[in-house]
Every structure is written in structure tokens, then in C-alpha cells.
């Protein structure tokens, strides 16, 4: 679905990823779950394009529900895969960093089962490694469709980054800031739950990286688009605190 001119949201529930169009070229921001491949192929075709128009896959982080189709896009479409350098090892080895909270503590939540069932069905219980990645650092502007600028905001994972499309005033937040909690179901701007973060206190501190970001629309990895600006989203995420 079109969320803004040239920006398409792809989702089969729980997790979002995005296709950015510019000058006939496509950039995939995050790569969903492995079972989202057919959705990606349909979405590209729906834009009147082919997989060869997919120039790159830009990852907000290397978790299994965000990296799922990246290796297949690399080998099938010849798209280069980019990730922050602090998540590069996780992306290429498939070894996930340990979480600082216990997933067990969410067992009484219906949302927990909904998420686990949906992601398991789509093969996102483990990282599908990417054989070869390009890396970026904080503040780097990438020469890719939409000219995204990386905003490193670690905590959910060491290399978690938000990506700013400055010309469009859109911030792709990955799992730096979500608008729906995939383990509790709580709706509204917030950091991800402790059971999925490598360092929750750091994730909260990293919200400072989004202070002053010139974005009206925030497109998260989990939840609906946020249209009331970055500053208000950060304020509400701080107020919500950890979960
Ligand atoms: Zn996620």
C-alpha cells in the first residue's frame, strides 16, 4: 500500500518493510520474513517493475523478521545488501545477539502468540544469513534511491539504525521506534520490548538520536505509520518507557 508518494508499505502482519521508488529504481528498506518473498515479487510487479529494478536492500538491523528475503534478493535480483557495521556480523553469520529480557515474561499476552505464530509460519525464527553485505556508519548518506541518511540508534540491536529520506521528510525507524508492540499489543510510539532488545536502557537513550530529525512521517518496522512528526513520537516513546 502507498503510504506517501513513491513509498510503499509491504506487510503480511506483525512486520512492515518498504519499497522506495525513485527515477525508475527501487530500494527495499528491510526485507521482511523469508516467507514474504512472494509479497515482494507481487509488489514490484504491481509497480510495473521487475526484480532487476531493485537496486539495493537497506536493512535497519539484522533480526530475522527484517532480513528474511535479503539474501534471496541479492542472489536473484543482484541487489546489494546494506547494514550498519555493528550488525554486519549478525547479518553474515546468522548469530543473534542475546536479549536482555526474557520472552517468557510475555506468555500471558495474546499478542505474543499472534506474533510468534505469524513469524514462525513465515520462517522468521532464525536469521537467513546474507553472504555479502555493504556497511554504513552513523550520519552517512547512501547513494541509493531516496538518498537515505543513516541515524545510528543502538539498543534494540547494536547496529540498529533509522533511515531519513530528507527530501520527503520521512523517517524509516526500523525497530528503533515502533508504533505497535509485537509482544504486548500496546499501540503508540515506543521502543521495542525488552525480550527482543540487546540493551533496553541504551534503546531508550538512543531516542535522543531522533531529537530534531526533520521528519513528519515515521514508518516503523512494527505498527502503523505515524504522521504527527518525529518530536511528538519521541516524547511519547520516552513517556511509555520500557516494556
Ligand atoms: Zn522487528
Care to describe what's here?
By secondary structure, the chain is an alpha/beta fold. It has helices spanning 37-46, 64-67, 70-77, 88-93, 110-121, 200-205, 230-240; strands at residues 2-4, 7-11, 16-22, 25-29, 54-58, 80-84, 134-136, 149-152, 161-165, 170-174, 178-180, 187-190, 217-220. The chain has a 7-stranded mixed β-sheet, with helices on one face. A 4-stranded mixed β-sheet has the order 8-9-10-13, with no helix packed on it. Strands 11-12 form a two-stranded antiparallel sheet. Strand 11 and strand 12 (187-190) form a beta hairpin. The protein is globular. Zinc ion is lined by residues 15, 63, 65-66, 175, 221-222.
Mean pLDDT: 96
Percent range of helical residues: 10-25%
> How are helices and strands ordered from N to C?
EEEEHEHHEHHEEEEEEHEH
Computed structural class: alpha/beta
Number of helices: 7
3D shape: globular
Determine the strand fraction and express it as a percent band.
15-25%
The unreliable regions are: none
Give the CA-CA distance, first to last residue. Answer: 30 Å
The unique ligands bound to this protein are:
zinc ion
Report a brief summary of the structure.
With 243 residues, the protein is of the alpha/beta class. Helix content is 23%, strand content 24%. It is globular, with a radius of gyration of 16 Å.
Amino acid at each position: 500500500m502507498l503510504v506517501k508518494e513513491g513509498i510503499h508499505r509491504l506487510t503480511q502482519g506483525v512486520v512492515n518493510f518498504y519499497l522506495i521508488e525513485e527515477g525508475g529504481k527501487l530500494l527495499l528498506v528491510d526485507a521482511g520474513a523469508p516467507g514474504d518473498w512472494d509479497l515482494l515479487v507481487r509488489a514490484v510487479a504491481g509497480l510495473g517493475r521487475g526484480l532487476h529494478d531493485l537496486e539495493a536492500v537497506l536493512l535497519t538491523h539484522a533480526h530475522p523478521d527484517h532480513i528474511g528475503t535479503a539474501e534471496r534478493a541479492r542472489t536473484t535480483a543482484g541487489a546489494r545488501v546494506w547494514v550498519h557495521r555493528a550488525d554486519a556480523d549478525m547479518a553474515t553469520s546468522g548469530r543473534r545477539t542475546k536479549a536482555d529480557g526474557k520472552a517468557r515474561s510475555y506468555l500471558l499476552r495474546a499478542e505474543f502468540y499472534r506474533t510468534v505464530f505469524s513469524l514462525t509460519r513465515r520462517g522468521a525464527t532464525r536469521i537467513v544469513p546474507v553472504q555479502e553485505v555493504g556497511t554504513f556508519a552513523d550520519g552517512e548518506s547512501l547513494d541509493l534511491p531516496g538518498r537515505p541518511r543513516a541515524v545510528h540508534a543502538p539498543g534494540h540491536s547494536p547496529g540498529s539504525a533509522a533511515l531519513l529520506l530528507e527530501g520527503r521528510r520521512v523517517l524509516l525507524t526500523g525497530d528503533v521506534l515502533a508504533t505497535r508492540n509485537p509482544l504486548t499489543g500496546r499501540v503508540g510510539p515506543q521502543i521495542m520490548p525488552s525480550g527482543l532488545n540487546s540493551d533496553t536502557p541504551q534503546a531508550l537513550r538512543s531516542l535522543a538520536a531522533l531529537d530534531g530529525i526533520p521528519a513528519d512521517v515515521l514508518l516503523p518496522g512494527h505498527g502503523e505509520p505515524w504522521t504527527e512528526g518525529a518530536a511528538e513520537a519521541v516524547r511519547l516513546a520516552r513517556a511509555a518507557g520500557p516494556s
